[in-house]
Design a protein that fits this description.
7-stranded mixed β-sheet; globular; mainly beta; OB fold (Dihydrolipoamide Acetyltransferase, E2P)
């Protein structure tokens, strides 16, 4: 990798134990890009500017604060789709003083992967690869895009960005931050503190809640306590329970994490050292877990979380110490299948329109609004047809026999299974997420299970549907 951040990046990667990457989703597939190459993340406008180039991956150009940035979409080049997508997010990559935008569907957060877990992918013909490395995350292979190969694509109209006051030395000293918003407060989190992110749908109530720490998420088999009140950090405000913003997983100590439910992740951006300033005197006394103010590229003022102070905070350390293997590991799940009433797992309760059903939370990838079928196909297995999800086709199934797809409002996307494409299951609404034991159905078929649940004051015995 020549030029820009790549010499420093490769030298650092050679001596450090971890690689920090941004996690992206394109056509339903998870990818990653090294954070050292990322300048910022911006929304993709509804209409992009002219291409000014000939490469088939080039979809147009955008203007960001006076810089002209060509934008590419690699979904066709990688074989993910037969056409490029629209909307989503643009990850702005930088090599020296040249910028390139990469259109993706979403940016899901940051992730730190051990260098020893990264595997090189070699092309059989010896040519450069767009995805040149990979690692395993949650039993899925995540490919790492090679920014140097992106910049080397022929026919791209690369434009040098304005130097302004951000010379090469300032950029070399820049740190990557995750910029979030909570209760109207803009906060910058050093990427070194961030382990990963989790979707809001994975939040569930703790069996033994603590003040300000009433919920948790399952991350790689570990139960991670989550806070949503700024009071935990010495400020005022709270993230609403129904917010669909993600959970930021903070690395407090080895194998010890806490989660922070935020309202939104605005961007992942590099901020130069000269854009960092001290806290106002009136705020410094009460904001002991913040180190200063960071000015982002839009001129916004962000409180900078003090990573060292957060890791020293007694209450946060106490919650991080509770980060243990959850009740959803294989041994405990096996016990649950045998009918052990004192072993619980997390279930999503959803309404099919005819009844409530439960499905294991770890069987779900995400829940999205259902906008109808793109083509109708019916068979004995409940297949209704195909729909489009993040630019890729997904098979849509009715849970109830003879279910009407036109009446459904939600699509529950199941985790991928080997040998099967993306699958979605129709639902009317989500009722709740519970921790409950999976109990055998009296007189039912072998393997049939139900969970006891009280919803809106009414007790239910809810059959388990495995989204199979």
């Amino acid at each position: 990798m020549a030029g820009g951040f790549e010499p420093g990046a490769s030298v650092v990667e050679g001596v450090r134990r971890h690689l920090d990457v941004g996690l992206l989703r394109l056509c339903g597939i998870e990818l990653a890009v090294p954070v050292d190459w990322v300048r910022e993340v911006v929304p993709c406008p509804a209409a992009v500017g002219p291409c000014f180039g000939t490469h088939p991956a080039l979809i147009g150009s955008i203007g960001v604060r006076g810089d002209v940035i060509p934008v590419v979409d690699v979904s066709v080049l990688l074989g993910f789709s037969d056409r490029t997508g629209r909307g989503g997010t643009i990850v702005v990559l930088r090599r020296d003083d040249v910028l390139l935008g990469l259109r993706v569907d979403t940016v899901s957060g940051l992730y730190r992967v051990p260098v020893s877990a990264v595997r090189e992918l070699v092309d059989s013909c010896g040519t450069a690869r767009l995805v040149d490395r990979a690692f395993v995350r949650e039993e899925h292979l995540v490919g790492i895009l090679d920014p140097a190969t992106l910049f080397a694509l022929p026919g791209l109209p690369l434009v040098r960005c304005q130097a302004r006051d951000e010379d090469g030395a300032a950029l070399t000293r820049a740190q990557p931050f995750v910029l979030v918003t909570v209760a109207g407060v803009q906060i910058a989190i050093d990427s070194q503190l961030v382990e990963s992110t989790a979707p809001a749908v994975s939040l569930r109530r703790c069996a033994v809640p603590a003040p300000g720490w009433a919920r948790s998420v399952n991350y790689l088999g570990r139960d991670v306590r989550v806070f949503d009140q700024l009071a935990t950090l010495g400020l005022d405000g709270v993230t609403p329970d129904d917010s669909q913003g993600p959970v930021i997983l903070l690395r407090i100590a080895p194998n010890q994490l806490v989660g922070w439910h935020v309202e939104s992740v605005r961007s992942v951006a590099r901020i130069a050292a000269d854009k960092l300033g001290p806290l106002p005197a009136g705020l410094a006394a009460r904001a002991s877990l913040f180190a200063g103010i960071a000015t982002d590229r839009d001129g916004g003022q962000n409180l900078v979380l003090d990573s060292d102070a957060v890791r020293r905070d007694a209450s946060i350390r106490a919650m991080a110490a509770l980060c243990r293997q959850s009740a959803q590991n294989p041994e405990r799940s096996l016990a649950a299948e045998r009918g052990s009433a004192d072993v619980t797992s997390a279930f999503l309760i959803f309404d099919t329109g005819e009844r409530l059903l439960a499905t294991p939370l770890d069987a779900i990838r995400e829940v999205v609004p259902f906008h109808g079928l793109s083509s109708r196909v019916e068979d004995y297995s409940g297949l209704c047809g195909l729909s489009d999800h993040r630019g890729a086709p997904v098979s849509v199934y009715a849970v109830e026999p003879g279910g009407d797809p036109e009446a459904a409002k939600l699509l529950i996307i199941a985790r991928d299974e080997e040998g099967q494409g993306p699958r979605g299951f129709l639902a009317q609404r989500l009722a709740t997420i519970i921790n409950a034991p999976a109990l055998p159905v009296p007189g039912g078929s072998p393997g049939a299970r139900f969970v006891p649940a009280t919803i809106e004051g009414t007790a239910h015995s809810i059959r388990i549907h495995t989204l199979g």
